[in-house]
């Protein structure tokens, strides 16, 4: 019953207090066991040392020539005169001298002289001439005594000397020795209690001040949450080994192994390429377009920070064709629609003007207008068709040219423009997204700088080992506060909320193709974006 009540009481304590009590109980048991061991060892050592001391004194006294002579002659006064000084400086409880029959010739209690020595342990000394240590009960109580025979020159036993220490005296000495250990043992116990308390507090902090059952519930909740999300999730430790991977991630990466078989494997053995997992370990990554196991995904990486050091990472990713990516592509479709609308407006205005001139019978003016428009536009169109062999890209550039006209800007193509082929590391839509976003940014920057030049310069050349794309404007430039972050998603200098995606897409696609982006200031004002994308 008592044990059950103690168990119930212990179970109701907090985890921190249970740890403290358990360590304290264990420490106390260890201290008691250590005390018992030390007491036992000290007692045995004390008995041995005192026994040897008693034996040595008995042997030294029995070997005294004057004592041998006095014992032979039963000269009690002489024996007393010899032993009394020795008793004064010896720490022994008593010294007894007996004759060859074991009768006392000297004793601390004069009334005992003449009586037989008690204890029954004198025979070996009297009849065999041996010296030894024994524990017996005598007239003064139980004692530890050394016995040695008194022998003449021929070896004949004449008597016996017994030097004794009572067990009560030994216990007093033992108590003195053990009492000197009480203070260190008490200090040690206090230190153990302090360490137990600190350790229990440390454990509680490591558990985020939660009880074990709370941690177990949280672990189950996180496991369910990990499996319930529609994104792929992978958790890795500081050694880049998988600690968790959900079902969505295994399905998207075409992994047939169950989670237990994947846990503990290095991430580069499961997912390739591994640059996304290893590069810039101190930085978080968000919505980067990367390739996992030959599948293009949009991935993010968050570090697990413990003591200001990354101790692992959680990677989330989704298919590049999910709803978020479709919304981004929709913005590209909107750009195409704007381009077509610009061309439509441009030709509608011209047709209206020509129709008006014909109605007024100004045939010469109408003909001149037709020729003027045809010559200027046809020159640009011919240049694009002749130098840009990629039809998708050519169509984009023609649309952007008319869009610039509609906005009151001038898109000028560098004479060095020439595109015969594009690297297959990017799709047609991705190339169109890169160039279209760069030109749109140049248009927006130019429109926000009314006093600047309205000209935007464009160069696209694929003749070397890499494709060079350069777009330069004379607009408002890049705000110094966001210059280092312009390629992050959502970062923009525009007040319109639908910006902050274009340059993020450009950066993602260029990284995907292994290219480089260089951003320079245009003199006297504006910005130059230069892209270097290697051929396959």
UniProtKB/TrEMBL annotation:
It catalyses: ATP + protein L-histidine = ADP + protein N-phospho-L-histidine. Its EC number is 2.7.13.3. The keyword Metal-binding does not apply. Residues 342-536 form the Histidine kinase domain. The chain crosses the membrane at residues 20-38, 181-200. One of its GO terms (molecular function) is ATP binding. It is a multi-pass membrane protein. It is found in: Cell membrane. SMART domains: HATPase_c (SM00387), PAS (SM00091). Keywords: ATP-binding, Cell membrane, Kinase, Membrane, Nucleotide-binding, Phosphoprotein, Transferase, Transmembrane, Transmembrane helix, Two-component regulatory system. The keyword rRNA processing does not apply. Pfam families: HATPase_c, sCache_3_2. Its main location: membrane. This is histidine kinase. It comes from Pseudenterobacter timonensis.
């Amino acid at each position: 019953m008592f044990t059950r009540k103690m168990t119930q009481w212990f179970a109701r304590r907090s985890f921190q207090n249970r740890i403290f009590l358990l360590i304290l109980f264990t420490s106390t048991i260890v201290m008691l066991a250590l005390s018992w061991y030390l007491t036992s060892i000290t007692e045995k050592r004390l008995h041995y040392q005192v026994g040897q001391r008693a034996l040595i004194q008995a042997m030294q006294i029995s070997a005294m020539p004057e004592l041998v002579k006095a014992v032979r002659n039963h000269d009690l006064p002489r024996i007393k005169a010899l032993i009394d000084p020795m008793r004064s400086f010896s720490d022994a409880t008593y010294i007894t001298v007996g004759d060859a029959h074991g009768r006392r010739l000297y004793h601390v209690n004069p009334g005992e002289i003449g009586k037989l020595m008690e204890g029954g342990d004198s025979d070996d000394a009297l009849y065999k001439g041996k010296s030894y240590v024994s524990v017996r009960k005598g007239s003064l109580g139980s004692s530890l005594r050394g016995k040695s025979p008194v022998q003449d020159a021929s070896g004949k036993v004449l008597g016996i000397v017994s030097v004794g220490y009572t067990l009560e005296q030994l216990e007093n000495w033992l108590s003195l020795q053990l009492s000197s250990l009480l203070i260190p043992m008490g200090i040690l116990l206090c230190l153990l209690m302090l360490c137990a308390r600190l350790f229990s507090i440390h454990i509680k902090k490591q558990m985020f001040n939660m009880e074990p059952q709370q941690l177990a519930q949280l672990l189950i909740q996180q496991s369910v949450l990990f499996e319930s999300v529609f994104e792929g999730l992978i958790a890795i430790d500081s050694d880049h080994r998988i600690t968790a991977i959900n079902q969505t991630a295994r399905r998207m990466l075409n992994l047939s192994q169950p989670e237990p078989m994947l846990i503990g494997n290095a991430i580069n053995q499961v997912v390739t390429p591994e640059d996304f997992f290893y590069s810039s370990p101190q930085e978080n990554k968000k919505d980067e377009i990367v390739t996992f196991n030959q599948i293009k995904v949009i991935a993010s990486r968050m570090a697990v920070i413990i003591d200001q050091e990354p101790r692992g990472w959680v990677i989330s990713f989704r298919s590049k064709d999910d709803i978020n990516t479709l919304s981004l592509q929709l913005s590209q479709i909107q750009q195409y629609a704007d381009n077509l609308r610009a061309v439509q407006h441009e030709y509608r205005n011209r047709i209206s003007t020509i129709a008006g001139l014909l109605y007024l019978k100004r045939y010469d003016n109408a003909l001149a207008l037709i020729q003027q428009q045809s010559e200027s536009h046809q020159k640009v169109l011919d240049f694009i068709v002749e130098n840009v062999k990629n039809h998708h890209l050519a169509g984009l550039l023609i649309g952007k040219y008319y869009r610039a006209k509609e906005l009151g800007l001038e898109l000028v193509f560098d004479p060095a423009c020439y595109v015969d082929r594009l690297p297959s590391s990017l799709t047609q839509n991705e190339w169109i997204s890169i160039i279209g976003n760069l030109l749109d940014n140049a248009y927006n920057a130019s429109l926000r700088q009314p006093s600047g030049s309205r000209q935007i310069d464009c160069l696209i050349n694929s003749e070397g080992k890499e494709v060079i794309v350069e777009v330069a404007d004379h607009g408002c430039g890049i705000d110094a506060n966001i210059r280092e972050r312009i390629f992050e998603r959502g970062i923009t200098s525009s007040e319109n909320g639908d910006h902050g995606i274009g340059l993020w897409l450009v950066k993602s696609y260029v990284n995907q193709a292994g290219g480089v982006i260089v951003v320079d200031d245009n003199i006297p004002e504006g910005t130059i974006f230069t892209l270097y994308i290697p051929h396959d």
